[in-house]
Amino acid sequence: MGGRGVLLTSNLPQLQNLIKRDPVSYKEEFLQQWNHYDSIRQIFQINPDEQAQHFRELVSFISQVAQCYPKETKDFPSHLSTLLLENYGTLTPDTRKTLVQNLVMLRNKDVITSIELLKSLFPLLPRTTSSTLRAFIRKTILSDIRTANLRTKNHKLNRAVQAMLFTMVERGMDAEVIGDKGKLRSAGPTSDKTANNGEDAMWAVILTKELWRKGIWTDAKPVSIVALGCFHPVMKVQSASIHFFLGSDDEKEDSDDEDEEGPDVRALHHRREVNKKRRGDDKKLQKQLNAAKKKKYNKNAPTTPNFPALQLLNDPQTFAEKLYDNLSRYDKRFSLEHKILIMQLLSRVMGAHKLCVLSFYTYIVKYLTYHQLRVPSILVALAQSVHDLTPPDALTPVVQKLAAEFVHPGVGSEVIAAGINSIREVCRRQPWAMEEDLLGDLIEYRRSRDKAVTAAARGLLQLYREVNPGMLKRRERGKDASIGMSKGGQPLPFGHSADAAVDIEGLMLLEDHLQKLREEEMGSANNDGKDDEAAAWEGWDVETDSDSESESEGWIDVDSEGDNVEVSDSEDERESAPKPPGEADAGIDPNPNRISTLATTKILTPADFALLNDLRIQAATKAIESGGGSKAKRKLEALEANRRAMQTGPSDGTFISENDILGPRKKAKADYAERIASIEKGREGREKYGSLKGKKNKESPSSSTNREKARNKPIMMILSSGAVRGKKKASLREKQQKLRAHIERAKKSYH
Questions:
Q1: Mean pLDDT of 695-707
Q2: 357 Cβ contact partners less than 8 Å away, ≥ 6 residues apart
Q3: Range with the lowest mean pLDDT among 54-63, 236-245, 463-472, 577-586?
């Protein structure tokens, strides 16, 4: 230990290196520095400006070697946390950054737990004014939670963090709703600035949205946190929470991936031309260009509703009623944009869960005028709120209002098309909301000269040919509808349903398939019931099971007709006459009295329903191959649509867009900005103002030669050129000289 005698106590990096090599031998030196840190800390609490640099060095030194002396430094993390939380306003920016970084270092060295770190970082987010420190804290929080849930879900940490976020949102719920319009908009700040601005709640919502978007939290608890934010008195918290459910995050600061602007494509090409050429630069450039193109495409892609979050709402009826109460109570304080956001969320919750908030239809009637701002969005919200359980009595006045305001000769063709399309979307979900006389008047617009109006009226006519042709006149019903009515087919009135459901359609296929699997397992190995029970719980969810796709493919290949497997012991079922192949193969049991007991003896998982749908698709395919007819084809199309809906969420008819309301429109003349944007789009991927003609497949880039250009000149232009006219006027002597010169050049070229 010759170097120990010359060790300077002020040389902290050298002492740090020696302590990490041999902590026991240098314990006295560490205790000396620890006592020095303790005295400096007490002075620093009284006067933060005194010896701030030396204090930061001591904090960094102790953080580096804290894992070597856990007993002596057990109170060190609490010292840093207390300084940050209690004296944050008096600390310099460098000191704040050092304390936060050392807290994160202690977490990386497992000196403190994730919960202790997050309890210190969460209160700092709304208080810090430094963008770099705020970004560092946010990134640290997200990465720490992601790492903790990387292999398996850390339920203890998730519950603790969700409780903190829920408390942050709930803290300012008792305040008065300020609104973004009216007198209270310019109200002065209250005594508690944080509660007034809602920074705590805003950051809680932002972090929850980010963790949901990254797939770290996918259960109902984060949805409950954001759902509580929809009723926060601060408008920006409300807006951020509503955008989460709508799936249209307009706030760029909500996503750390969207903070950075995309790379400049022109600058990348310029840098490649100017800088030194290296081997991997072309691949790097292409990678950056692909990333920029993908980011630009994702930015312009249409947004889709957050359907899983809507389905995970706790008590959606109460949530919808509170949304409407919030909308109607503060109607004077909310701006039109914010009210439309609430309408869209309320309508989607009503449509997804088939809820009835009848007061919403009386509220929205006052906005159903053709001169109303943002009226397409309001019409979309109205249509999405309707479903087959909505009472027609509540919708009939709305349909009459739409027809009176939008469909009459005093408005333009675009307004008429939007009105008829809106009525069609409402009646598609609840056909009994239409009156017979009004339907006849609206269908007459199919003879209009405007294409959009004609398409809208024909769509309404086609809809009622399918759902209720009895409301149409005889000549307007069409062939198929007339044949169906002659056979006695009538739609069920509102409130009536078909025969009571006694079984799940096609469940016998699944029961036969599982029975066959059990018999195969018992034939190969004598396993007890425990193995069957364990195998039954495999693949609980379709998305989380990694082998579900391969298993589903295997399931599809298994024969589902049950020719070699006898499940029932009933003689009547065995002796019953077989049905035609189209019905037997399409998943319809030959004996309609046979009811599967699988639903009462086993919990059907999402994987079971996916398997059931695949078995029914296979059976319908076999029915078509064996001549099942159009009925089997329609059944197959419905099953495939059901499978796509299970994979991607709701069908396209659940949520609509403004284009469905406006219908096909004539292309408007582009303005200056649109023309410039189109020109710029056409210039992407080529050199600036340069032609590629003549530059391809050449060692050195160059344009075409004059001889090549002369080949493409018009013949009349060549005949009147100076060269041709000069040849015509040339004398005999000049022609002889040119011929002799040509012969000499030809001789030289051969030798």
A1: 71
A2: 320, 321, 324, 346, 350, 385
A3: 577-586
Position 221: which residue type? K
DSSP secondary structure string for all residues of 165-195: HHHHHHTTTTSPP--SSSGGGGPPP-S-HHH
* Structure confidence at residue 240 (pLDDT): 95
Tokens of 332: 């004077």
Which residue, chain included where needed, has tokens 């770190």?
A: 117
Half-sphere exposure of 51 (CA within 13 A, CB side): 15
CA distances from 432 to 71, 468, 499 (A): 76, 9, 21
This prediction has a pTM of 0.69
Q: Residue 619: what are its φ and ψ, rounded to 5°?
A: -65, -40
Cα 642 to chain centroid, rounded: 21
Which has the minimum average pLDDT: 183-197, 284-298, 358-372? 183-197
Q: What is the mean pLDDT of the chain?
A: 81
Cα torsion angle, 683, 689, 692, 693, sign: positive
Q: How far is CA 745 from CA 264, 717, 727, 740, in A?
A: 54, 29, 20, 9
642 pLDDT above the threshold of 80: no
Mean pLDDT of all residues in 562-574: 42
Cα separation, 38 vs 75, whole angstroms? 11
**CB burial class (10 A; 0-12, 13-18, 19+) of residue 417?**
buried
- Is the Cβ–Cβ distance between 347 and 381 less than 8 Å? yes
| DSSP class per residue in 494-513 | TT--SSPP-S-TTHHHHHHH
Res. 158: pLDDT tops 50: yes
Q: What is the mean pLDDT of residues 675-681?
A: 87
Residues 6+ apart with CB under 8 A from 411: 370
Neighbouring residues of 141: CB distance < 8 A, sequence distance ≥ 6: 118, 121, 122, 125, 207
Q: Identify residue 693 by its one-letter amino acid code.
A: K
* Cα(273)–Cα(267) distance, integer angstroms: 10
Mean pLDDT for 519-527 is 70
Tokens describing residue 393: 């009595």
CA distance 645 to 690: 49
Distance CA 711, CA 34 (A): 90
Local structure of 609: helix, strand or coil:
helix
Average pLDDT over residues 692-696: 60
Q: For residue 503, with 0-12 CB atoms within 10 Å meaning exposed, 13-18 middle and 19 or more buried, which class applies?
A: middle
Cα–Cα distance, 239 to 224 (Å, whole number): 16
pLDDT for the residue numbered 258: 40
Kindly report the number of other CB atoms within 10 A of residue 304's CB atom.
14
For residue 731, with 0-12 CB atoms within 10 Å meaning exposed, 13-18 middle and 19 or more buried, which class applies? exposed
CA distances from 728 to 424, 713, 718 (A): 79, 20, 13
**Quick one: residue 497, left, alpha or beta (phi over 0 = left, psi -120 to 50 = alpha)?**
beta
Least confident of 143-157, 400-414, 597-611, 643-657: 643-657
Q: Which helix (H) or strand (E) holds 90?
A: none
Query: Is the CB of residue 558 less than 8 Å from the CB of residue 516?
Result: yes
| Residues contacting residue 556 through CB under 8 Å, at least 6 positions apart | 614, 615, 617, 618
Q: What pLDDT, in 10s, does the model give residues 308-360?
A: 899 999 999 999 999 999 999 999 999 999 999 999 999 999 999 999 999 99
Non-local (6+) Cβ contacts of 640 within 8 A are: 617
Give the number of C-alpha atoms closer than 13 A to the C-alpha of residue 647, restricted to the C-beta side.
11
Return left, alpha or beta for 685; rule: phi > 0 is left, psi -120 to 50 is alpha, else beta: left
**Structural tokens at position 588:** 């319809």
Question: What is the spatial distance between Cα 458 and Cα 43, in angstroms, rounded to a whole number?
Answer: 83
CA distance 447 to 470: 22
Which pLDDT score is estimated for 288?
83
What is the DSSP code string of 214-229? TTS--SHHHHHHHHHH
Name every residue whose Cβ is closer than 8 Å to that of residue 745 and which is 6 or more positions away in sequence: none
